[in-house]
Each structure stands twice: as structure tokens, then as C-alpha cells.
Amino acid sequence: MNTLATPPKNFEVKPKLDAKGEELGELLEVSMGPHHPSTHGVFRMDVVLDGEKVVKLKPVFGYLHRNHEKIGENISYLANMPYTDRLDYFCSMTNNWAYALTIEKLAGLAVPERAEYIRVIMAELTRLQNHTCLIGFFVQDMGALGTPMMYAFREREKILDLFEEVSGARMMCNYMRFGGVRVDVNDEWIAKTKKVVADYSKFLDEFGTFLTENEIVLARTQFVGVLPKDLAINASITGPMLRAAGVNYDLRKVDKYGIYSRFDFQVPVGEHGDIYDRYMIRVLEMRESIKILEQALRDIPAGPVMDPKAKLRGFRPKAGEVYGRVEGPKGELGFYVISDGSPNAYRYRVRPPSFINLTILEDMCLGHNISDAVVILGSVDIVLGEVDR
Amino acid sequence: MFNTLDQIFVNALHWLVSFVPEPWRPLASSMLCISFILMVFPAFFSIITIFERKGIGRIQNRYGPNRVGIPFTKIRLCGFGQFIPDGIKSLTKEDIVPRAADKVVHFLAPVVMLIPVLLAYAVLPFGRNMTMTDYDAGLLFFFAIGGAVEIAVFMAGWSSRNKYSLLGAMRAIAQMISYEIPLILSAVTVVMVVGSLKLEDIIAAQNQYTYGIAHWHVFTPWGLLGFVLYFIASLAESNRTPFDLPEAESEIIAGYFTEYSGFKFALFFLGEYLGMFAISGLGITLFLGGWTSPVSFLTWIPSYIWFFSKLITLIFVFIWIRATLPRLRMDQLMNFAWKFMLPLALINILIAGIWHFMNVEWQRWIVCSTLVLAAYVWLGRGLMHQQKLGKRTYRYAE
Amino acid sequence: MLGEQIIKGMAVTARNFFESYVSKDRLTTVQYPEERLPQKGNTRQFPFLVYDGDDAEKGLRCVACQICEKECPPKCIYIVKSKDKKPDYKGQMQVYPVRFDIDLSVCMSCSICVEVCPFESIKMNTEFELSTADRFGGLLFGKDKLAKSNSYYQKVHPKDAAESDAVIAAEKAKAEAKAKAAAEAKAKAAAAAVSPAPPVTPAQPL
């Protein structure tokens, strides 16, 4: 009698073998497509899975390409300033500063002291709100249904209100000019900013109890997505990812651009290079930013905010090439400009930190689960406006 | 007076059944009880979905739904009519069945999910004398029926002929099976101490008062641990955060009900929530005293009010946890079940046995409390330290 | 102990839940469109043209110099100069725009046009509820829709309007002073030309 216990005589299962003679499983190819709740923008990952482990991962982007560099070569330098807002749309002030820095280097313009202080204040406020948003998105990717994200956005609104009061727009500020800033800030604004910064430390404490030692967050982020130090340096990673991997490299200390040498702040450096380190480095950076902000708001001098030699219209810098960079919240944001004496640039190139940090995604994700790949992507902190330009 | 208020539903049932001729009375009584359950619990489900959305909204510093009251009028009712448009929406969506799907199984899966869950309500005591069928082995019946939910999940995943939903279904079943064991083992401690599988007896054992406080099982060391284990296991059984990997797989696989749309999806949703209520109801019966009141001077409040308020409280805790915690990864989930909850449940059985056999009150409190605390801390530390997880300090560059 | 931090996190959530009923800081949603957040003083949405007085045609400050058209980054402004001239606020005869179109669907609200305008004639408006169902021209605003009076500008951006008015008044005063000085010089020259030479008295005989 043919029962299930004894298989029929010609029944044979031959497993597929690969070159080494080991059993080959069936590989699952998935495209986490551009429409996806967990990829930060229109970004696609072609993932090849073996069961649940990632075997190959190819990031595919370009869905948000807007010809930024071509536009920059066809319009005047001043008219390109609003376009730089839209590169990394979370951090418009930092983008503006990097561009203004580059062109000031090219044209030899000096920036008055009050404008330098204002630039530092704006850049650190941008860093605060970017990192806050990032932590919100990062925990959202882990499945927390948006609660930390809502708290993060509630605090970010306060900073965006400050930006709106001074420059008229919340995100696309268009605030820096070559030789200074567009409008001055008044004492009322300084007082409001002081209050926001004071409240921010309390918010960070509350956020920290929520997340920093939460066992589930620890279990999902520690020792996941490790980026070793030498690989990070070889792959030109910059920003908090590099510092989490253990390399002490912060452009504010290395280049000392602006007036950062006057402020007393420290640079946190991680050890393991995993997701938890990247998240904690960003939290510690936020606290350092608060320190810088307190010092800048206390010491800001009175004076003009625009170089009297700078011209708005008919601005023709002399011919030459220059590379200017700042420490953006996501990494080293650089602008490379070649000028030939005409009102437009001859060649205008952006060094996007998110794009370069993204090239290492596959190496970090190999061997992990697909759920980890999503969280690793969240910790790289990409903004598609910058990746695709 | 309060006694009549307490027994109002029972008396109403007897009065209605008295209109029916004698041989048909048991059948009529069962029919009326069934219709009561079928009316009350889906209505409860609709209200709870709105409470969930509003509760999560308030936690996230925003309003939940607050516009739809009575449709087609301007009466807002703080948004509590939201379930009407949601129900209409799910009814009017197109019912897509994949061409390669196994049609019979695909059709039956939501039904197989819903029917056992509704059957489980038959043994739950909602108030004094308000159990529909009081079996001698009521607890066993509940767990036996609850196991049928897993087959429904598998049917849903298999019939869709979709690699991804099959994988999701496998994960869901693995999760549900792993967490059944701590669930049942924590219930076993109650059975050991009470000595009976009958749910009415379990409540009667808790219906005694010492110094005004009831003898609820949750007020004992083994009961507290058992309740915590039961609660975490019930979170996993109902696929709620932090164990909702099968259903909210925002990563790639949309889970075992990716191929369901319209009314069948609504049935799955209904089945999941009703399962949540049923398992909470059982937890209340086993550990929180069922329909009894915690203090002796509040026994005048009707018993069904106590049961439903405890049920609402437990559901609010479910919602609160859902709004707060991120998700666990699959292997971490299984790790947690097999390496933490199962040993703890077994140790809990030992502690319940020690409690049962020690007669001196203060001695057994001290022994059992220290054992509970020691077991929890030891196993917890083992779980985290095994993978070297923990707080870290960071150095600053010079 | 395992679960301690989770309990602390849940305490934070519960605190938010209860405080959302009590404090405004914990319930930051505004029920638009019944309630609206007050707009900040400096907020900028889309440009508009300023005219003095009541007549949008006669009081329009814009002299069609086309600087904003050249400097606009997305090139959303289109100006057609007039053939005749009309007096501006200083009394000089200036060209005016016959057509002044801004395509609001292209405009990126960068306010560079406002910065470079030498005549204080284009400023930023604060109105943003401009959606229309007409995809092909519903947001192409011509001179009639863009021109708003100076009193509107003072209502919407009081501080900027005060500065702008001060600049205009200074220019006007300068122009008037120049005109007065020119008139005085002319009058003096005319008086010098008109008044006859002093009479030549014949020399008295000895």
C-alpha cells in the first residue's frame, strides 16, 4: 500500500548544486520601487535575497534629476542662489552658505562680522532641525508608527518659524548673498531664538528617554550595518557616518571656515560604526550645536550685514576656479566653480554628500535581513534632491 | 436594586424566551445569546477603531478623525461616526481575486478566521450568570478554538499563489505558534492554583475579599508575572506592534493578506480585532477577576460594567503600546519567545506550585516575589548581554 | 532590568496624551480651513505690483525697466513696454508696461525681483490660496490681477511698506529739491536776462 510514509519508487528530489557542490537556494529578486513608504524620496533599491539575507543590492536613483548643474551654468550667479536652496531641501541655509562661500572665494569678497555670526546661527539651527527630522524618520522606518516623527516635526516647526520671520520662507530661504546675508535680524528675533534653543535641550532629553536606551531600538540597531574605518575613508564618506566609523574629521575644525574657530565645541567620534553609533553621534552633535548657538547668540556684534563692495546686478567675478566646502548636516557639501569672467559660471559642479554616502550602501547591507536594509538606508540620511540634483 | 440592574440582561433573556413554547426554549435562548454577541462585539469593534485613531492622534499631538458624525448631516459627534464611511468604503471596493489563486481557499480564509474567533466568545463570562455556555473545560475550548486562527492565516497566504504572501504567511504562523506556548503556560498557572478549567470557578476563586481587596490573581507574584507574560503573548497573537511584522511589513512583503481587497479585507480586520477582544477577555477572566470588582465597597456596580471597563482599559494599553514602540525583527521576535518567555513561563509554573503548597502567608509572599524578580532579571540580562547590547558612551575628539 | 526603558518611553507617550487636552503646545494641529495660523510679518508668497493712489493705471510705479525680467531665475516675468509715456511719482515722464505677466506656476517665490527693482514697484504678497482648476493659464496673472494699491501693501507688510514709503518720499524730496534748485537757477538766469542793463548816463560836460 502506498502511504505517505514510503515515497514511490521513482520519486527523487535532486537539489540544485552550484559550482562548489553546495546546495543552491532560490534567489528572490525584489525591487523596492520608487513608490515606497520607507525610502526617503523617489529612490529604488534592486535587492537580491537568499531567503531573508541580502545577497546583492543595487541602488537606482535619478528619479528626481532636475538639471541643477546645467541650470547653474546658464543663469547668473545670484539667480542660482534659489536653486541651491532646493538641492538638499531640508538644509537650505547650509546650501546657500556653501555656494556663497565658494563665490566669495572666487571674487575676493569680505564678509562683515555680524553676517558671519548670523551665518553660523542659521547653519547650526539647520543642523538641529535636520538631525531631529532624521531621527524621526529613522524610528518611523523601524515601525514606530510615526510618534517620534510627530514630536520631531513639532520641534522643527519652531525653527522653521524662526526662518520664516527672518527670510520670509520656511524652507527655501534664499538668504545668503555674496558678501553677507540678505536682511538683518533684529533683537526680537535673537530673543526668540534664544528661547527656542533653551527649549530644545529639554526636548532632546525627552526624546532621549524615548529612544536612546529603548531595548527594541538597541536590538535593531546595534551591530547592524557596520561600516569599518578604512572602508569609510576609501569611499569618501563624510559627515556623521564618517565620524561614527571612528574617524575624527569635521570640516568645522579642519577648515575653520567662517568664524568657527571662535566657538568652543567638541566633535563626538564613534567606535563601532553601526547604525546605533550614527544615531547617537547625531544626537551628540545636536547638543554641541546647541552649545555653539548659545555662544553665538550671546556674542553677536552689531554692524552691517553686507559687504559694501558687493554688487547685486552685473556681478562678474574674475576668471579662475575654486572649490568651497562646508560641513553640512549630511556631510561635506562642496561647490566647484570655474569662472571665465562672464556673468554665468563656465562649469558648476556640486559635490553632494548624500550621493557619495549612498555608494557604500551595498557593502553595509550584505548579509543582513531586508528589514535591516531599510533601517540602514535610513541611517545614511539621504535626501533625493541632493542625490539626483 | 443593584441586583436587578446587574441581572437585567439575564432577566430580559428569560422573559423573551418565555414567549417561545417549551421544547424550543434552549434553542431560542442560544439564538438570542448569539445575536447579542454578534451585535455587541462588532459595534464595540467599530468604536474601538475610532478610539484607536483618536488615541494615537492625541499621542502624536494631533486630532484624530473629528469630522464625521452622522453622515449627510452636520452633526459631528467628535468624529465617532467614522466607521460608517469606512464600512461603506470596504463594502464598495472591487473584490479582486488573482487569476492563479485557489478560489475556494481564497474565499474561505477570512471566514475561517472569523468563525473560530466568534466561537471563542461563547465561553467568556461577561457578567454574573452571563456566560453563554459554561463548559467544564471552558479554558481548553478557548485555546483549542484559538488555534484555528493560524490555519486561516496559512490559507490566506497559500491561496494567493504569491511568493511574497506565502513568505509573509510563514512568518506569521511561526510567530503565532511560538507565542501560543507562553500564552498557554501562563494560563496553566491559574489552572494549577484554582484546580479547575471552568471559567466560572476561576472567577469564583477570585471573588473573595481580604481587607477589602479582592483575591485577583494579578495581585500575587506568580499572577503578576503570568499576566505580563500573557499580555505580551496576546500582543503577538493579535499581530500588534511590536510584533506586527506579518501585517505591517512596510519593507517589501505586504503580508499574507496582500491579495485581499474590499469586504474580505474588512473581515480579516474584524477577525483580528475580535481576536484581540477575546484574548483580552480571557486574560481579564484569568488574572483580573473577570466581572468582579477590585475593592469590596464597589461591588454594587453591575458586573458587566466591570468586565467591559476592564476590557476597554486593556485595549487602551494595546493602543498605547502600538503608538510607542517600534517593531521587532523576525529573528529577534523568535529569540524573545523561545529564550525569554518560555523559560520564564516554566519558572512561573514552579513559583505557582510553591505558592500553592506553602501555607504561611507572609513567607510565601517573600519567597515567591524574590523568585519572580530573580528569574526576570536573570533572564533579561541574559537576553541583552548575549548579543552585547547595552548603553554606550562616546568619546569626544580633542 | 529588561523593559525599564520601554516603560519610560511609554510614560513620555502617556504624558503627551494627557497634556494634549490641556496645553496648546502638545496639540499643535490647526483645524484648517476653519482656523488659520497667523502669518509671519515677513512672509513672501508671490509678487505683486504697487500703485499709488486709487488709479491702477495712472499710479503704477513700474516703469518697465525690465530689470526684474532679466534677473528672474526661472524667467517667469514677461513685460511689454508702452510706446507713450506717463508721469511717475517724481513728475518725470516714464514709459510704463503695457503687459506685465507673471506665471505664478513657474514663479519660485525667491523675491530676487523685489531685491533688484530700483523703483519700489514690485513687492511680495502674502496670499497663497490661489489654486485654480484651469491648468493652462489660470495662474498666469496679468497687470490687472497683479496691481494692488499702496494702502494694501501697508496693510500686508507694515514695516516694509514704511521703509518703501520712506525711500519714495526721500526720492521725491530730492527730486523736488532738485527741481526747486533748477527753477531758482532758471528764474535767476531769466531775471538776469530780462532785467535791462543799468542805463548808461552820458558823461557830464566840464
Protein described:
Chain A has 389 residues and is α+β, with helices and mostly antiparallel strands. Chain A has helices at residues 68-74, 81-85, 92-107, 113-141, 147-167, 187-211, 215-221, 229-234, 240-244, 251-254, 275-299, 353-358, 361-365, 370-380, 384-388, and strands at residues 27-32, 44-50, 53-60, 176-177, 180-181, 267-269, 320-328, 331-339, 345-351. The longest helix of chain A has 29 residues, at 113-141. By secondary structure, chain B is mainly alpha-helical. In chain B, 65% of the residues lie in helices and 2% in strands. Chain B is built from 14 helices and three strands. Chain B has a two-stranded antiparallel sheet. Helix content of chain C is 36%, strand content 17%. In chain C, strand 2 (77-87) and strand 3 (93-103) form a beta hairpin. Chain C is elongated and about 110 Å long. The termini of chain C are far apart. The model of chain C has no long low-confidence stretch (mean pLDDT 83).
Structure summarized in a few sentences:
Chain B has 398 residues and is mainly α. In chain B, 65% of the residues lie in helices and 2% in strands.
Low-confidence stretches of chain A: 1-5
Strand content of chain B: under 5%
Spell the H/E element sequence of chain A.
Answer: EEEHHHHHEEHHHHHEHEEEHHHH
Tell me the CATH topology of the largest domain in chain A: Cytochrome-c3 Hydrogenase, chain B
Question: What CATH architecture label of the largest domain in chain A applies?
Answer: Orthogonal Bundle
Helix count of chain B equals 14
Mean pLDDT score of chain A: 86
Of all chain pairs, the largest interface belongs to:
A-B, 50 and 36 residues
Instruction: Give the tally of structural domains of chain B.
Output: 2
SSE map:
The complex is a heterotrimer of chains A (389), B (398) and C (206).
Chain A: E1 27-32, E2 44-50, E3 53-60, H1 68-74, H2 81-85, H3 92-107, H4 113-141, H5 147-167, E4 176-177, E5 180-181, H6 187-211, H7 215-221, H8 229-234, H9 240-244, H10 251-254, E6 267-269, H11 275-299, E7 320-328, E8 331-339, E9 345-351, H12 353-358, H13 361-365, H14 370-380, H15 384-388
Antiparallel strand pairs in A: 1-2, 2-3, 4-5, 7-8, 8-9
Helix pairs in contact in A: 3-4, 4-5, 4-11, 4-14, 5-6, 6-11
Chain B: H1 2-6, H2 8-17, H3 25-59, H4 83-92, H5 103-120, H6 138-146, H7 148-159, H8 163-194, H9 199-206, E1 209-210, E2 213-214, H10 221-237, H11 263-287, H12 303-324, H13 330-357, H14 361-386, E3 395-397
Antiparallel strand pairs in B: 1-2
Chain C: H1 4-19, E1 47-51, H2 67-71, E2 77-87, E3 93-103, H3 112-116, E4 122-124, E5 140-141, H4 143-146, E6 147-149, H5 150-156, H6 158-194
